[in-house]
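Action item from last week, closing it out:
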Amino acid sequence: MEKQIVEVRPVYKERIWGGNKIKSYFHGTTDINPVGEMWNVSALPFGDCTIPQLNTTLSQLYTDYPDWFRCESSQLPIHCTLIDPIENLSVQVHPTEAYARDFENSVGKPEAWYIIDAPLNTKIQFGHTAKTGEEVIERISLGEWDQLLSYVEAKKKDFLFVPDGHIHAIGKNVLCFEIARNADITYRLYDYDRIDNKTGKKRDLHVEKSLDVLVIPHHAPGPYTISEVLIEGCRIRNYFDQPNVFTFASIEVDKEGTFIFDRFYFLTCIEGEGKVNEYSIHPGTTLLIPDGYGKINIEGKVTLLLSSYRD
């Protein structure tokens, strides 16, 4: 089949902390309520995006047309999500590559967040203060979460890379885009003792597994932003590009621009309206551009997020 740009239809996920922007701002069409996540790029068995114009799923496209992706991975290696929380997410940690392989039949899940919007002085939980495993266990047993957990400020257009094994939690009202490895293994360490209204119970915790994979002491850097470069009408910020993890950038166009990338990539619109070639786009639209496609034309005043991968 000839390579072409295709629209990727998302998968929606109900979350206890979900807000209303997935539907009201990102044009989400779902009966799920509250909807907290919009999986814009997903080829997981329990959340496989569709490609209506090709009458297929993203995972099947990846299998049937490997030349569109040119990856050594047996499955699409990345997963992308728009996240809209009106409450804090649980404090959680993702397993390392080795632990996920040995105990979960999965891959590890390093991830990163691009902050789309956040109220002034908003914080994100990231990392901890403990120097030893014994100190972590003591703080948890005493319920001293304020003394254990560390926080960083959330600012629009910041980027935060979260390596596997590092505890984290997106803060209340921090609208963000997450790019991660194609996995969904999450260990919940703390959930503020809140009750799920639908079950009347607290959600399950995974303290033992969390402690198995937690990096002690915490050493990962915090959020950052970078300067933009102007290329053919596109203001580009290249945030992250690490082999076997993922690649991420933002593209802003004020009126018209042209863009080219040397690998397959997904473009998700987070602001404005316009066109990519003949495709109309608005917040929430995700397009797949196959490997080796060539230049694309972007029209309108829009902000796009680029998600990709290289072996």
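Closing note: DSSP finds six helices and 26 strands in the chain.
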